[in-house]
Amino acid sequence: MTTRAFRQLHLPKGLGLNLVVLLVLVLLVAAPLLTILMQTLDPDRIGAWRDVLASPLSPNLFWRPAANTMILGFGVAIGCILIGGFLAWLVVMTDMPYRGLIGFLATLPFMIPSFATALAWGTVFRNGRVGGGGGLLEGIGINVPDALAWGMIPTMIVLIAHYYALAFTVIAAALATVNGDLVEAAQMTGASRKRVLFGIVLPVVMPAIIAGGSLCFAAAVSNFAAPALLGLPVRMQTLSTRLFGMIEIGQVERGYVLAILLIVISAVFLAFGNRILSGRRSFATISGKGGRARRFALGGARLPLTAIALLICLLTTIMPIILLIAASLAPMASALFSDWTLHFWIGATDPAFARGQAGVLNNPQLLRALALTMGLGAVVALIANVIGILIAVALTRHRLRGISEAVSQLSFLPMLLPGIAFGAAYIALYGAPIGPLPALYGTSTLLSLALTAAMLPFAVQTGRATVAQISGDIDEAARLTGAGFFRRIGAITLPLASRGLIASLLLCFVNVISDLAIVVLLYTPTTPLLSVLSYRYASDGFHQFANAVTLVILAISTLAAGLAALLRGRNRPWLSS
Amino acid sequence: MITLDNLGKTFGTAMAVQDVSLSVPEGAFLVLLGPSGCGKTTILRMLAGLEHPTAGVIRFDDKIIADAARGFTLEPGRRDAGLVFQSYALWPHMSVAGNVAWPLRVAGLSRDEQRARVAEALEMLGVAGLAARYPGEISGGQQQRVAIARMIAPRPKVLLFDEPLSNLDATLRVEMRTELLRVHRATKATAVYVTHDQIEAMTMATHVAVLNGGRVEQFDTPERLLSDPASAFVARFIGTPPANLIPVQDGAWFGTLPCPALPGANGHGMVRAEDLMMADAPGPDAVAAQLVEVVPMAGRRLVTGMVQGQRLTAVTDAAHPIPADLHFRLPPTPSAVFDAEGRRLS
């Protein structure tokens, strides 16, 4: 028998691992999506498509919410590009003072859950139209028009304040690659300042601007918290709130159809952005050495521009937190800074106060939610990262034609999926018993599965970095010393990768505990979660409790995110001069 | 012709360039040579108009293009000069042809003229086949050629190069040196070329300004830099291998081997590698050395030894055996003598 024939008897190396991760991905990602699609195509239910798209109901079911969603998406994208781009330009290209601080602050709003920002908005701008007390402005005698208190405008502003950090990050990274040389090369030709700006600088960063815009667009159309808190009270529906409503009232097929349509809208724009960003004209494909950063002197505009930048950052980071703190202490949002009481935090049940609700820290349901949320965060972070590393190993060390492509695509697919649509898909698949397996609806297992799947793209990315440590030159250098596999893992790989791994675990944890969109459909009273509790309190008019619970989430996630940032070290290349 | 008169540049309190005066004729190839931080790139950027001098005057032919005393500087685009950046600075959103055409468009040339010039420049650099590609799709060497094509297309009278070869690998670098010289001859323009690589300077320059700490150490032809270095710095910087600078104390090599030609001198004596002989025993003019390395080179051999903590290199015949107990024999007179501050004495 020749060696060649002998080899043919063996299965390819790593086949087992590849098949296992593929199976996991099919169960976590592909199966729910296929199920939701198949269920709407079922002959008994296919009518839901007609109901949604072409029936007397469809303007209300789909077209008006879709129009609102698109307006919101484009408005937020444009707003984020303007604000994020403005700050990125100041931080990267000019001699503005406090660039480091502003560059740091501008990445923070994304860390604050969007329902926190939405609640903070309500604290100030709420008016009496939908019942309940007014906000701070009403309290000091200013009549807040409905347009500023509820509906499209406040939703859009809150989402811009939340997502401009995304645009900032992408545009700042792009501007940092426009080294001074590109501009000077243009100056050498005798081109005017205007021509250099429009002929060179803008076209070079345009891919990043478009990509940042499409990221913000996809994020805005997927967002649930802001339109739900600020739009629903005046019946402004977006696709995500409509989808939520349909499933809440039991019209699941229509909800599933809306989920599929929402996925398509968001994915189309994300794919468009990705394509632009990786196109052949992309700035990222060039990396020349040299080139000093030349900072544009702001001259007399320096102080006013700095003040504007600082104001934007403070209004979108610290201000919402201060407002939430005050609002969790004040009995009336209209008198935000008087009569402070700790009742909403630690008070006992008192029929004369807040309809007999106890303070959040005295509320057994909240304590249970706290425990469950933390536990869920920890478990999901752990499982997602373990799977992430396994997938990374399969992808980098044992590539198999066909299987690897599927694994890679499936593991990044959740990034394209709006959280609430993802939640709907999980109900479609695991909400009912599958053969002998019981229905998972209402269990924390279902929550963990859905959140794990949602965290996978992120975990795989970290996993790849970790595996690169294991298989690179560094490991080979250790092998040459004769150290065995486990010794190398203990002495080389773990010490190098541990900071990144722990940081990744922490960030997964933060994402899980501040998520609302995925869990809002999967949650039941037996599985209370902090974010859903906060949302429920807010929609029932118990704003102080909602604010207090949100602050608990914020405190935990800020601690975890801060720790992660410390562990990862600074990674903001555009700040180096 | 390019003329610099007492050119100076300070950044805040730091003196980047001080009192630089030199002049090269039209068609010359001037190399600004020196270690990093010597001010060579700052001078180049002042020639380009990207930096404004804080002292002195720059003239192209008889025309003043910058005069610090009057606070006058001509815009970069009106100097009839082109610059190749170290990073190439190709505009990533334009094709190769687009990159070369843009300066022509800014200059307001007709479309036909633009097309002809672009074709001519790409042809000259041998990259006509890449015209439709984007900078991100071509190799570093090709990017370099495109950057040069972009510079010459408007036919500038002054060609400026900022360490253009430093991002290329060794083979490409030699190839591009030849290419650059060909382009320079074909355009008949005056070239100013910044580098820290003395071999580039020696192979390409008609004139070299050796810079150190913002000042010109020596402005001369490549041959004269080798044969007649003006300072110890130049002597150490130039030559392959560079000359040996041997400490002299009270007229004796290393303070121990008296040299009759250097009565009472203190400083350094310059001994070229070809003037340093090997010996196998101590003597009145021979000093013990520890063998460090032997490099075969063009049928000869470079023998380097450590003497009292200093490297000395001799060139010998490849056939000449290396003594087991290596000594170097010093010549009766050094080729040049520098004082303790590095100034040329004789």
Succession of helices and strands of chain A:
HHHHHHHHHHHHHHHHHHHHHHHHHH
Biggest interface:
A-B, 27 and 35 residues
The DSSP helix count of chain A reads 26
Biggest sheet features of chain B: 6 strands, mixed
| Quaternary structure state of the chains depicted | heterodimer
Secondary structure tally: strands of chain A: 0
Give the strand order of the largest sheet of chain B, numbering strands 1, 2, ... along the chain. 7-8-9-3-10-11
Describe this structure in words.
Chain A is mainly alpha-helical and 577 residues long. Chain A is built from 26 helices and no strands. In chain A, helix 2 packs across helix 20 (419-430), helix 4 (58-93) packs antiparallel against helix 5 and helix 9 packs across helix 11 (193-222). The termini of chain A are far apart. Residues 284-291 and 571-577 of chain A have low confidence and may be disordered. Chain B is an alpha+beta fold and 346 residues long. In chain B, helix 2 (96-106) crosses helix 3, helix 3 crosses helix 4 (140-152) and helix 4 runs parallel beside helix 5 (170-187). Chain A binds chain B through residues 179, 181-182, 184-191, 195, 199-200, 203-204, 206, 280-283, 285-286, 288-291, and chain B through 48-50, 75-78, 81-83, 85-94, 102-103, 106-107, 134-137, 143, 150, 154, 162-163, 166-167.
Topology:
The complex is a heterodimer of chains A (577) and B (346).
Chain A: H1 3-8, H2 15-41, H3 47-53, H4 58-93, H5 99-105, H6 114-125, H7 136-139, H8 146-149, H9 152-177, H10 180-188, H11 193-222, H12 225-231, H13 239-248, H14 252-277, H15 302-316, H16 318-329, H17 343-346, H18 364-397, H19 403-412, H20 419-430, H21 444-471, H22 473-480, H23 485-513, H24 519-522, H25 530-539, H26 543-568
Helix pairs in contact in A: 2-14, 2-18, 2-19, 2-20, 3-4, 3-14, 4-5, 4-9, 4-11, 4-15, 6-9, 6-12, 6-16, 6-26, 9-11, 9-12, 10-11, 11-14, 13-14, 14-20, 16-26, 18-21, 18-23, 21-23, 22-23, 23-26, 25-26
Chain B: E1 2-11, E2 14-24, E3 29-33, H1 40-48, E4 55-60, E5 63-67, E6 72-73, E7 81-84, H2 96-106, H3 111-124, H4 140-152, E8 158-162, H5 170-187, E9 190-195, H6 198-204, E10 207-212, E11 215-220, H7 222-227, H8 232-237, E12 244-249, E13 252-253, E14 257-258, E15 267-271, E16 277-279, E17 286-288, E18 290-297, E19 300-307, E20 310-317, E21 327-329, E22 336-338
Parallel strand pairs in B: 3-9, 3-10, 7-8, 8-9
Antiparallel strand pairs in B: 1-2, 1-4, 4-5, 5-6, 10-11, 12-13, 12-15, 13-14, 15-22, 16-21, 17-21, 18-19, 19-20
Helix pairs in contact in B: 2-3, 2-4, 3-4, 4-5
